[in-house]
Amino acid sequence: MTKYQKLGLGLVFDALGYLSFVFPPFDFVWAPLSAWLMTKLYKGNTGKIAAIITFVEEALPFTDVVPTFTLMWLYTYIFKNNESKTIV
After folding, report:
1. In the prediction, which pLDDT does 34 show?
2. What is the pTM of this model?
3. CA 1 to CA 66: how far, in whole Å?
4. Predicted pLDDT at 77
5. Which residues in the chain show pLDDT less than 50?
6. 39, 53, 77, 85 from 72: Cα distances, Å
7. Which domain of life is it from (predicted)?
């Protein structure tokens, strides 16, 4: 899967998280599902940590505005890559 496909899926998954504003019980299904999806998109310890953060963020009320999947994509492909390039 390319990094832009992951970005597209992340945007869709973040949009799905907003459904809980319209239908609050959706969080009971979406919180564990989003954590599982995060571990499938991002492997290793960073994916596991992001899954925990995603689960908590989706389970807590009024925190669904945080685009967790998009932030993880930015961390993985923008910030993390810049860190490795600047290390001498």
Report:
1. 96
2. 0.86
3. 24
4. 93
5. none
6. 11, 10, 9, 19
7. Bacteria
